[in-house]
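Example record

The entry below shows one chain as it appears in the dataset: sequence first, then structure tokens.
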Amino acid sequence: MGVKLRLTMSDILSEIFATPDERAMLAELDLTQLPTHIAVIMDGNGRWATRQGLPRVLGHHAGVDGVRALVQACKALGIAYLTLYSFSTENWTRPESEVGALMELIEHQMRTEAEGLHREGIRIRQLGRRNGLPTSLQQTLADVEALTDGNTRLTLQFAINYSGRTELLDAVRQLAMAACAGDVDPATLSEDDIAGALYAPDIPDPDLLIRTAGEQRVSNYLLWQIAYSEFWFTPVLWPEFRGMHLLQALTAYQGRLRKFGGVTT
């Protein structure tokens, strides 16, 4: 019989961050002071494809590798929550062929990768309005969420058919209906009440927001939750985002003083 060796955390990190530069950056990180929740705006798939002389949809396919790499890196580092901006409510205005291909890609990846992510202890959730998505995708999301619901290694949220303003609108409507029913006193509403009416009230706010492809705006993403998030922007297009870039973001994050509006000396 062969002997099955148990990999240490150091072994796992060395496999994920394999280049000399990555290992050097990893050695400088304080692994006890990492963000609990990272949110990402995965921008640049279409531009990447155009630069390669390919149809835009192939850029989205190429971006899947970036998602896999980031998920594995966050899991290895012990990041508890990762939220990926996958499809905004504004994206419905894109050409019908591109939207249809994106819906098919999201559903296909959910179906084919759910079992593997489940075995790794990853919980998958969708953030956004479920209604309005193709019926088959709605069912796939429900199935994947049910399968992985008890997992605790990493919570992986996909923001699909999501917009920050829509989320706030839905929260206000929920609270207004509760007030009309006499269950809530509008005069006593607090920030906690609003946070509790958002799509994922059990998920802590992001500590770090990463956006790729050089743009420096939040694009209607997690507007309530990123009030005190640290932002990190990179010109790297999403299909090319890998472990080195995550380490750069984490290095920048650890170099900042988070005051949350207070004063430090």
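Notes for this example: The chain has nine helices and six strands. Residues 96-119 form the longest helix (24 residues).
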